[in-house]
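Blinded run. Sample ID left blank on purpose so nobody reads anything into the name before looking at the predicted structure. Input follows.
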Amino acid sequence: MRFTPEAILSLIATGASLVAFLLMLQESLALRKGDDPLNNDVRSLVRRFPRVTYALAVLIGMLLGHLLWP
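Blinded prediction complete.
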């Protein structure tokens, strides 16, 4: 089996869309119940480790740049 850059990019986009959808679904259900949404925990985790977040963003940018650069 051989993965092309387009297939890898499609898998990354699909995974990111799924994560975003699940976070929005959990937030709407939590707000309906009156609980704290998971997004608050994610936001506090990102603020607690800014260097790791920055490194992850750079890594994702490098991967996307590698796949999309002609």
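Unblinding after everyone has recorded impressions. DSSP finds three helices and no strands in the chain.
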